[in-house]
């Protein structure tokens, strides 16, 4: 086994491996998941490694962390190609492929400041309809504002649960 592949396959004991992330997007994924390492999470970030499917890819390994359904939706917005592996006792026990839902609710902030979802006194969950998956294009169901792939990271209001 070459040194390169050793880097990729080195195992975690219990936790989550997010694989097949487009190259360079690992940090964005951690950011939108609200994982910063401050709470002592053990995280391995492997960037720009060879991938048969993607050419190059990123991988994130998080010891002792399991994802919630909304985490999968968030990941699908940034890395539609991602797979999520659940590891127990050094073995992959479950494998999921993320998939972008037709409607993205409560995960993205509308960039239109006059949108009703941005009214301070209203607690309306944002709703975006997926108009196109590749390239990613979503539309606010309240004001019609369209957002694109490159806007996604800065519009994730995921942390404001
Ligand atoms: Zn809006």
Automatic annotation (TrEMBL):
One of its GO terms (cellular component) is aspartate carbamoyltransferase complex. Involved in allosteric regulation of aspartate carbamoyltransferase. It holds the Pfam family PyrI_C. GO terms for molecular function: metal ion binding; transferase activity. Residues 8-98 form the Aspartate carbamoyltransferase regulatory subunit N-terminal domain. Binds 1 zinc ion per subunit. Contains catalytic and regulatory chains. NCBIfam families: ATCase_reg (TIGR00240). Belongs to the PyrI family. Its cofactor is Zn(2+). Keywords: Metal-binding, Pyrimidine biosynthesis, Transferase, Zinc. It comes from Fervidicoccus fontis (strain DSM 19380 / JCM 18336 / VKM B-2539 / Kam940). It comes from the Archaea. GO terms for biological process: 'de novo' pyrimidine nucleobase biosynthetic process; pyrimidine nucleotide biosynthetic process. This is Aspartate carbamoyltransferase regulatory chain. Residues 103-152 form the Aspartate carbamoyltransferase regulatory subunit C-terminal domain. Transmembrane segments: none annotated. InterPro entries: Asp_carbamoyltransf_reg_N, Asp_carbamoylTrfase_reg, Asp_carbamoyltrfase_reg_C, Asp_carbatrfase_reg_C_sf, Asp_carbatrfase_reg_N_sf. Zn(2+) binds at residues 110, 115, 140, 143.
């Amino acid at each position: 086994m070459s040194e390169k592949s050793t880097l990729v396959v080195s195992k975690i004991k219990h936790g989550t491996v997010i694989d097949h992330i487009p190259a360079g997007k690992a940090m964005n994924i951690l950011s939108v998941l609200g994982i910063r390492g401050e709470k002592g999470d053990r995280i391995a970030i492997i960037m720009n490694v060879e991938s048969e499917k993607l050419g190059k890819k990123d991988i994130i390994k998080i010891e002792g962390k399991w994802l919630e359904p909304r985490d999968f939706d968030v990941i699908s917005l940034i890395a539609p190609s991602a797979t999520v592996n659940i590891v127990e006792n050094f073995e992959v026990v479950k494998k999921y492929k993320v998939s972008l839902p037709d409607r993205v609710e409560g995960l993205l902030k509308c960039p239109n400041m006059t949108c009703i979802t941005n009214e301070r006194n209203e607690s309306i969950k944002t709703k975006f309809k997926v108009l196109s998956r590749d390239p990613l294009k979503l539309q606010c169901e309240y004001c019609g504002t369209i957002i694109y792939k490159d806007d996604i990271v800065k519009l994730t209001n995921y942390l404001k649960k």
